[in-house]
Amino acid sequence: MKRTVLKFGGTSVANLERIARVADIVAARQAEAGGLAVVVSAMSGTTNQLVDWARGAAGEDLRGEAFDDEYDVVVASGEQVTSGLLALALRRRGLKARSWLGWQLALKTDDAHGKARIMGFEGEDFVRSVDSGEIAVVAGFQGVDDYGRVSTLGRGGSDTSAVAVAAALKADLCDIYTDVDGVYTTDPRIVAKARRLEKISYEEMLELASLGAKVLQTRSVELAMNHRVPVRVLSSFEGAVPAPGAGTLVCDEDQIVEKQVVSGVAYSRDEAKFTLIGVEDHPGVAAVIFGELADAGVNVDMIVQASAKSEGRQNIVFTAPDRDAPHARQVLEKAREKIGYENLLVARDVAKVSVIGVGMRSHAGVAKTMFEALSAKGINIQVISTSEIKISVLIDASYTELAVRALHTAYGLDAD
Amino acid sequence: MKRTVLKFGGTSVANLERIARVADIVAARQAEAGGLAVVVSAMSGTTNQLVDWARGAAGEDLRGEAFDDEYDVVVASGEQVTSGLLALALRRRGLKARSWLGWQLALKTDDAHGKARIMGFEGEDFVRSVDSGEIAVVAGFQGVDDYGRVSTLGRGGSDTSAVAVAAALKADLCDIYTDVDGVYTTDPRIVAKARRLEKISYEEMLELASLGAKVLQTRSVELAMNHRVPVRVLSSFEGAVPAPGAGTLVCDEDQIVEKQVVSGVAYSRDEAKFTLIGVEDHPGVAAVIFGELADAGVNVDMIVQASAKSEGRQNIVFTAPDRDAPHARQVLEKAREKIGYENLLVARDVAKVSVIGVGMRSHAGVAKTMFEALSAKGINIQVISTSEIKISVLIDASYTELAVRALHTAYGLDAD
Asked: Exposure check for chain A: N or C terminus, fewer CB within 10 A?
């Protein structure tokens, strides 16, 4: 039996008119699908209101783990409302439908409230209900922990709910309806010639998602990859039934016939560069530095250990999110004696530009193309970091657009 | 161990400032109570908004049982929000507290969604938690049916939640905080000399509640009577810890030492009088009339079968809520042949005035006092109906205030 999962975000269910439009899409999709589950976010704006109330009740100073379980109780109510409303709108159209809340699904999570991870989802009753022809309207973003308390999956968590539901249903397709019509080779606001990708591999999407392309929550891509759930990113503002080839399919690498060496160019401006000058050169010093930062919750990204200077001292360069920069500086200044360094420099006017592609694995010269293209535009590379399917460079932030456009052209990604 | 239940309505938790005020009251009450449970309604206005959305999604025409389960999913979210917020506000004050939703309590109801009745509530985990010193913040108005679906208890249902929680806890007291400071001998807006009752019996409160005194939901009084839960009605706008003798205690008749013959005078303007003229006088005709009305959901109150006319025909008079009058008229006109009557008169400018008191059981002449007092003011009685502890009369609506004042004086209820 063909089973399909559809997911609609907060702007798609922002009011009764939009919910009616979603109900029309679901009704149209019902015809082609055997079993259908629909995952909804809260009305856009609702979650912010609920978060404000929770913070107001708890007090700004008192945020933290001791409050997160009740924060989740408050915030999860938004998706409860939209799931009920969409079920009503579907019944109005003569369809069989019912809502499912996190605890009714028994979508089990850990107890890291506010940012819980899905631990398991069997959903036997749920699968049976979907197979009976009843449309399941699932409240996204929420689950239940081992103690029977409400949990939420963090911002964008409804994407992850949708993939978890698709995995439990062994769905043929998980369609994520958003306000963009797919995943692009790069940000179309910067590169007019950016192209929509028909397909992208899980691995590439994961790199894109974690690099700040806000189309899908990173965890949803991880979960889709682990369970081999085909995920399609679609616009909710086009026709009810997607045209063939619409959107972008996130799928297994094997399903992509024409592999590009580089599939996309991503960038992030939320970067800060830290340079520790004259660090004592002895074993364990890196463990001390990055241990202190990890304990303080600072997420370190690129790390470069520069060539040793005289007198057994060296420089260590790393990047972290710019929003964490003041906090990271405090941590490092406090630990100055423990680490043993001469000077600390923090540059906040930097950006990270990356090229991503599974084709890199089998192609030489990908890095060379990148460096030549940047050099031709006179862009200086401050830090380089690579993974199997990604090359990232740190540059002066003012060159971001120039670099992205140059790389998009250099790798032959420009639309005709 | 002394266990106490506090209940706060929608105006008491209407915003963060009011919730903070409630948290202060709870903190003050915590000191005197061993175990404490607090039941909350939704923020005032929220429930109306949610109801509007649910009706908008389902369509006005399509209300009814086929939609009520999802209506409940939507509407129950309001109490989820306030229970989480109050738990946060209590923790901010350094108190141990957690929220409990209907399904977490396992407050079992029937599946009459939108107006469900509580079927059972054991709450072993809940009682254990309260006894451990953790303040239980209970989302009122909601339960869960046998199918694991969310149910709601109807308007005012949070009162019933509070009494059910108090029964499960075998609480010493269930304090209902409202916007009035107790139950009065009659409506103080009509009779300036109305007095607050220190105590009232369950039976009397039940008559008052069903007669339209909107202090407590009728079912909450029934439940309190069945489980012998002492319920106190208090103002939430006075001191945090109630002064001795504050509010009105609803309790067992045996606990009331000085019994008045009549405890209160109630009235209702939501009345319509139906007169069926020339009804065929044969067995079973009343069953046909009131069967048709019951099937149509019309709640018939007073019934009088007037003296038989000639030719084997009679008149039948009854009352029903005025809001149901157009519908009831349609039902009766449609069933005209089936019933067999000559004419139908509907009077909508009528009101019901009642005197209530457990003392009536042992006192003669109570009705005589009523009829004399009304007669002295020139008020004509259209219909009379009595129960063991109540006498009701139907009069011209324009005499309502005059009648209430006259009866309040006649039974010696006026304050000094």
From this structure: C
Residue of A nearest to B54 (CA): A85
DSSP A184: B
Confidence of residue B183 (pLDDT cuts 50, 70, 90): very high
State the nearest Cα–Cα gap between B41 and chain A, in angstroms.
14
**pLDDT tens-digit map of B97-142:** 999 999 999 999 999 999 999 998 988 999 999 999 999 999 999 9
Contact with chain A for residue B86, Cβ under 8 A: yes
Chain B touched by A298 (CB under 8 Å): no
> CB-based contacts of B342: which residues, under 8 Å, 6+ apart?
B277, B278, B279, B313
User: Looking at the predicted structure, is the pLDDT value of residue B37 above 60?
Assistant: yes
ipTM of the complex: 0.85
Calculate mean pLDDT across residues B381-390.
91
For A165, residues 6+ apart whose C-beta sits below 8 A from its C-beta are A5, A37, A39, A105, A121, A123, A126, A136, A138, A171, A174
Q: How far apart are CA A329 and CA A295, in angstroms?
A: 14
Whether the Cβ atoms of residue B206 and residue B262 lie closer than 8 Å to each other? no
Residue pair B280/B312 in contact (Cβ under 8 Å)? The answer is yes
Q: Do A153 and A161 meet the contact criterion of CB atoms below 8 Å apart?
A: yes
Distance from the A56 Cα atom to the nearest Cα atom in chain B, whole angstroms:
7
Helices (H), B1-150: 16-32, 46-58, 65-75, 77-92, 102-105, 124-131
What phi-psi label fits residue B245: left (phi over 0), alpha (psi between -120 and 50 degrees) or beta?
left
* Domain B3-256 grouped into CATH 2.120.10.30: no
**Mutation to test the B interface, candidates A85, A86, A98, most B Cβ within 10 Å:** A85
DSSP, residue by residue, A269-316: EEEEEEEEEEEE-STTHHHHHHHHHHHTT-----EEEPPP-STTEEEE
- A225 alpha-carbon distance from chain centroid: 13
d(CA B122, CA A351): 60
Q: For residues B296 and B333, is the Cβ–Cβ distance under 8 A?
A: no
Residue B310: what pLDDT? 61
- What strands lie across the sheet with B383-387, from one edge to the other? B303-305, B313-320, B264-280, B343-356, B390-396, B383-387
Q: Does residue B306 come out as left (phi exceeding 0), alpha (psi in the -120 to 50 range) or beta?
A: beta
CATH of B265-410, one of 3.20.20.70, 3.30.2130.10, 3.40.50.300, 2.30.30.110: 3.30.2130.10
Residue ranges per structural domain of chain A: 3-254, 265-410
Q: Cβ(A57)–Cβ(B85) under 8 Å?
A: yes
Contact A184, A198 (CB under 8 A): no
- The 3-state DSSP class for residue A251 equals strand
- Which three-class secondary structure string do you get for B186-240? CCCCCCCCCCECCEEEHHHHHHHHHCCCCCCCHHHHHHHHHHCCCEEEEECCCCC
Interchain contact, A74 vs B88, CB within 8 Å: yes
* CB proximity under 8 Å: B 36-55 to A: 50, 53-54
The alpha helices in A307-399, defined as continuous H runs, are 325-334, 336-339, 366-376
Interface test with B, best of A73, A90, A101, A142 (most B CBs within 10 A): A73
Strands, sheet with A303-305, edge to edge from the N-terminal-most edge strand: A303-305, A313-320, A264-280, A343-356, A390-396, A383-387
Of 3.40.1160.10, 3.40.50.970, 3.10.320.10, 2.170.270.10, which CATH number belongs to A3-254? 3.40.1160.10
Nearest-angstrom CA–CA distance, B375 and B356: 19
Q: How far apart are the C-alpha atoms of A37 and A99, rounded to whole Å?
A: 10
Question: d(Cα A136, Cα B286) in Å, to the nearest integer?
Answer: 47
Question: For residue A174, which of A156, A153, A160, A195 has the smallest C-alpha distance?
Answer: A160
How far CA B32 is from CA of A105, B27, B166, B242, in Å, comes to: 41, 10, 17, 11
